[in-house]
Design brief:
Elements: H1 2-10, H2 14-61, E1 63-72, E2 77-87, E3 94-103, H3 105-109, E4 115-130, E5 133-134, H4 160-172, E6 178-189, E7 194-205, E8 208-215, E9 220-229, E10 234-240, E11 246-247, H5 249-255, E12 258-261, E13 263-274, E14 278-293, E15 302-315, E16 319-322, E17 327-330, E18 333-342, E19 348-354, E20 358-359, H6 360-366, E21 379-393, E22 401-415, E23 428-430, E24 433-434, E25 437-438, E26 442-444, H7 459-469, H8 481-494, H9 504-512, H10 520-536, H11 541-551, E27 553-555, E28 558-559, H12 561-569, H13 578-586, H14 609-621, H15 652-657, H16 664-679, H17 684-688
Parallel strand pairs: 4-6
Antiparallel strand pairs: 1-2, 2-3, 3-4, 4-5, 6-7, 7-8, 8-9, 9-10, 10-13, 11-12, 12-14, 13-14, 14-15, 15-16, 15-17, 16-18, 17-18, 18-19, 19-21, 20-21, 21-22, 23-26, 24-25, 27-28
Helix pairs in contact: 7-13, 7-14, 8-16, 9-10, 9-11, 13-14, 14-16
Amino acid sequence: MNNWFSRFLTKITKKQLIIAGIVAGVLLVAGAIALAVIYHKRENLLTTALARIQSTMAERYQVDLAIDTAYFSGLSTVTFQGVTLTPQGREQLMKVRDMSVRVRLFPLLVGNIKFGQLRIYDTDLTLVKKDSVSNYDFIFRKADSTVVEPEVKARPEVSLAQAANRMLNDVLYKIPKDMELRNFSFSYRDDSTHQYIRIPKADVDRGSLTSAVFLNDNSAAWQVSGTLNPDRRQLSIKVHANGKRIAIPLLERKFGLELSFDTLETRLRDVFWTNNELLHFTGEWAVKNLTINHRRIAEEDIVFPDAHMDAELIVGNSHVELAKKTAVTVKKLTVHPYIRYTTAPNETYALGIETPEMEAQDLFDAFPKGLFTALEGIRVSGKIQYHLDAFLDTDNPDSVRFNSSMMQDNFKVNAWGNANIPKINTTFVYTPYENEKPVRDIVVGPENPDFTPIGQISPYLKNAILTTEDPSFYSHNGFVEEAIRTSIATNYKARSFKRGGSTISMQLVKNVYLNRNKTMVRKLEEILIVWLMESTRAVSKDRMYEVYLNIIEWGRNVYGIGEAARYYFSKQPSQLTLGESIYLASIVPRPKTGLYAFTYYGGLKPYISSYFRYIGNIMARRGLAPADSTGSYGFYAVNVREALRPDKPASADTLQLQMPQRNFDGELEEIRGLLDRIFGPGDPEEELQ
């Protein structure tokens, strides 16, 4: 190397050295002149820049930015005094008494503005909302469209990865290596809530962060510490309260959500590109004694003693993805979630969950206290492994994909715990609820004269219920993926929850084993109990169906097929005809509306005939009912007992008042969508003619 450099020097002539020196001198003088000009003009440049910012905020966002004094207090340090931010016609949002910012020179040479030092003294940030008017809504509002922008050429679509990278840089570049913050206060006030946070002191010393946060006049004190290394895109922050619990009272007062924890740690480990196209974020999150309580989530506190997440987020040109290598760990349970959202060419959603093979007991031991009360005390053995894969293309929701499987190896339940699933194999007491209040106790067994063994129920009734509620009941393992796919597609297209994917097994578990509170946890608990009941064969299919038919509601205070057959038709369940069975199947989803289907003379109203034709044809095609070329399938032979018939209407207008309080055509379309998926598309009516 030295020999090469020596030979290179010997080839340089004296003339070349003189020219190189002159060029370097000229560049040095030019740079010095430029710096001198900038130095002398910098106050004017600062004034012009601030005026432009103030004008832009006023015109685009209707926000007034006022600054009493702004000046350079060093070569690259700017000091501001008396800064206020006030939305026009609203209360003041922010006030800063004194602030100084030093910009790092070397990044500035390549166009990056990075803060080297930041000093902020006496800051008040106040968010106010009265009725629906707030002093911060401009943050979420689009810029004023009346402002005329200069004409520019159409720009290509922005890459999500590039946008994420710019946003990250905007945040990281504003993190100073040294910061001194004194007397910062933040408050939120609306018609019902007032929250106040005070930070008397926060310091960043060569990337080391220390701060204390006081909530609501010292009712709680949080300690914040960590290390900040924005140049390497690395952050590490820890929040604790010196052994006490940290609560978020604003969430409780605003949304009824009680959330608290002992310690919270987060770490941005690395940010990097692959193939100059995908931007990767890797990091960790850990929490100790996380406690959650909300009436829509669970009845009791849910406590996670220790939870950890090691995640990788990937952002591409048109997608955001939580990578499959992401791991969530609670005790001995490890779960790998996968989420992907794509914006182009179609908007799509993908969801996946994977677990490695594990001891089955580890799953139940990982459930936090208060989460699944019915499963407390359960003891199992064997190994399990879970897989879920779902995908939705919003341009074609009917093509939704949903696959779920639980692989088992010598899985066995050794102790059932609170649920005691096998209890329904013998006589037990069922208590239905109405408006969260018990109606009456019903003995499910031979001791009850209305109890009907499955062998004494009309085959037409059993097959009609199976056709409408759960056609593959005797062959599935508690869940019907096709029903879930149909539910997802239907609910997405309606942009609301219109259809569930419940099977007879799920309805049975919901009624017999769980309370009537509608919470997210109860639905998950229902799924787990169904899996346990079906996978262990703790209850036979016949017994499950027998109990189901003897407990479900068929009208106001009418429970079980024994009561229903007598109530509507003065018959025994074994005597029900095809038409009566199809009618009873039609009212299962909304049993209290059943009597609206009858006329004053006891027959059925015409609007329900399409239901008879469709369900009857499905049953005939499956060999569960004789074919009927008229398509009536007993419709005209159904007559409710006289005591239940409505009074004869005095006029046609009165007749209109007795029309059903339900969208029957819409319900039929929902049923048709599921059955067509299960039995194949086509018109059964045409096939049988």
